[in-house]
Amino acid sequence: MPAVIQGFLVNQLPKDPTAQSFPAVDNIPVNTTRMIHYPDQYKGVAISVAIFNQDGTNPCTFRLNGTSNPAVSLSSGGQFNVNDQNIVSVQITTAAVTGSCDVVAQISPTYLDTEANRFRRDRG
């Protein structure tokens, strides 16, 4: 079932057991706001993301898929996981003092067709 997320057509389901995937790790340094856009940077969509705040004293904030809602605050040393979702982008803002933030994602590559089309028996 295709979906459009942030103007990007996603043709795979996050729980598709036949989909290939690979890990990606991004480190966001101190006093930085960074947008990780998975289709541009990794040619795929994240199906799971873990955000680790490495700062021992300050929170970091994040937004998923370009939401305009208030950013979610992740406490010092905190961790946040999103699993079995289609995630096109993550925006992270780190504090200006000490720690960085790590983002670990499981990326499924961009498919040009749907799961149903990939497994039709009448393809010939």
Please describe what this structure looks like.
This protein starts with a strand and ends in a 6-residue tail after the last helix. The protein has a domain at 25-101: Jelly Rolls, CATH 2.60.120. It has helices at residues 38-42, 115-118; strands at 3-5, 8-10, 22-28, 33-37, 44-53, 60-64, 72-74, 79-87, 89-93, 101-109. The mean pLDDT is 84. It contains two helices and ten strands; from the N terminus they run E-E-E-E-H-E-E-E-E-E-E-H. With 124 residues, it is mainly β. The strands form three sheets. It has a four-stranded antiparallel beta sheet with strand order 3-10-5-8. Strands 4-9-6-7 form a four-stranded antiparallel beta sheet.
Offer a quick outline of the entry.
This protein is mainly beta. It contains two helices and ten strands; from the N terminus they run ββββαββββββα.
Low-confidence spans: none
The residue-averaged pLDDT reads 84
The CATH topology of the domain at 25-101 is given as Jelly Rolls
The largest β sheet comes out as:
4 strands, antiparallel
Which outline best applies?
elongated
Order of helices and strands: EEEEHEEEEEEH
> Number of helix segments?
2
Portion of residues in beta strands equals: over 45%
Helix content: under 10%
Indicate the CATH architecture of the domain at 25-101: Sandwich
Separation of the first and last Cα atoms:
23 Å
Q: Which class of the domain at 25-101 in CATH terms?
A: Mainly Beta
